[in-house]
């Protein structure tokens, strides 16, 4: 490994806006889950949730300031797909799973907020919005704009995280006002999410030539050609998302099966 590649792999880039934002979210979460239950015995929390939420924040941190960010921004499309996997399919479900409903419930007293959240987290809307946003940002022209403009790139990542949280709510919500889907309905929901991923990454994976100009012009590392890098990125995202969605489909099936047997 040459010095250039070695320096990339050890280059952590602590963006102040990322560190301040994620630290603030973590501290607010810790304050809410440990301070408020002291004054309301009806509210409960456990250290397991805290650990899961903190892992979710750490995953976001790794995605946004670790060498993954450096490599994805300047060298490899495949590294960018690993970053997108972390931002959409790993961190968001951890945050949703570990957030007690009572933290969010007070904002539903504001009727316009309740109506908006109820609308955008409806399974059809949540699935559609996430798939649409994710697909649009992988169109070559918009993608190249995002990697050449820092503020556009920040907007892209925020949209990924926000729409991914919305997408995961029908599966893992702990909010009574936004109930999760019954297990039998989680099966088609997950299946359609998987199909949406195929529509995005099939053209990327099976293209006969590289379609992202930014990576065509990028310095080569590890002797990976732009086309191989692009195809590897498509495979990483599809295999990663497929594994997650298939695992959750199997889980949903057995949960539904066990519920049906209990009824009988």
Keywords:
single chain, 264 residues, mainly alpha, 13 helices, 77% helix
Overview of the structural elements:
With 264 residues, this protein is mainly α. The chain has one domain (3-263). It contains 13 helices and no strands. The protein is globular. The termini are far apart.
Describe the structure concisely.
This protein has 264 residues and is mainly alpha-helical. It is built from 13 helices and no strands. The longest helix has 38 residues.
Low-confidence region ranges: none
How far do the termini sit from each other?
62 Å
Helical content stands at over 70%
Number of strands: 0
The biggest sheet, with number of strands, parallel, antiparallel or mixed sense and barrel status, is:
none
Strand content: under 5%
Give the number of helices: 13
The value of Rg in angstroms is 20 Å
Total tally of structural domains: 1
What is the succession of H and E elements? HHHHHHHHHHHHH
* Class by SSE composition: mainly alpha
Report the mean per-residue pLDDT as an integer.
90
Q: Can you tell me the overall shape?
A: globular
How are the SSEs ordered, and which strands pair?
Blueprint lengths: L2 H7 L6 H20 L11 H19 L1 H8 L2 H21 L3 H4 L6 H10 L2 H14 L3 H9 L1 H23 L10 H24 L6 H5 L8 H38 L1
Helix pairs in contact: 2-3, 3-4, 3-5, 4-5, 5-10, 5-13, 8-10, 8-11, 9-10, 11-13
